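CORE FACILITY INTAKE
Project code: CF-77B
Contact: R.S. (postdoc)
Sample description: multi-component assembly, two entities in total
Requested service: structural model of the whole complex
Turnaround: standard
Below are the sequence entries exactly as provided by the requester. Do not edit them.
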Amino acid sequence: QVQLQESGPGLVKPSETLSLTCTVSGDSISSGNYYWGWIRLPPGKGLEWIGNIFYSGTIYYSPSLKSRVTISVDTSKNQFSLRLNSVTAADTAVYYCARRAAAPAGWFDSWGQGTLVSVSS
Amino acid sequence: DIVMTQSPDSLAVSLGERATINCKSSQSVLYSSNNKNYLAWYQQKPGQPPKLLISWASTRESGVPDRFSGSGSGTDFTLTISSLQAEDVAVYHCQQYYSIPSFGQGTTVEIK
């Protein structure tokens, strides 16, 4: 059974860069059967998709975050990562990594537990 | 971008009664070539990540109780819990995957 685990700092200062890593176990990112993605849940709001990456490096980003986001993959470590630069308080959220079924499906069938990232000085 | 709007934002239902959650998309998520609605439903309990309940608008995931059902087509969808149980207290999210993914704002289900 696949498991995903987010790791990274829980507190980031405004204007700095948020960096998170997702470690996958029980499945290989290189299998080519899934996309691997990031989603966040800001307090009091709905889920927001950030982006997905395929093991080959194909990436899709949310248009609203595209200018600030970088998602990368390290198949040797079976990990993928998120970087969000120039953060503000509006980026405070629980960040989830998740596995997304490949097209034509597009749901997220496995999720990490989530990690709260607060943006504050 | 497709905007997903859920209603109501919250509802309180007595144990054993029916709970109905609506989800409306700003454009159709029905793909004509395969006649499938590209819509999923998730359940999120406090302190837990979302759990996939339903895909293709009405296909329950393995292990999901049959009191959960999804219906609708095009732009209007419904998640129904036919007989609310205490363990169903959660936030429910809809998501479209017709284009770049987007979610509704979530609906909180509580016990009356």
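Facility notes:
- The interface with chain B takes residues 45-49, 60, 62-63, 96, 98, 100, 104-109, 111-114 of chain A (CB under 8 Å).
- Chain A has no helices and eleven strands.
Invoice: internal transfer
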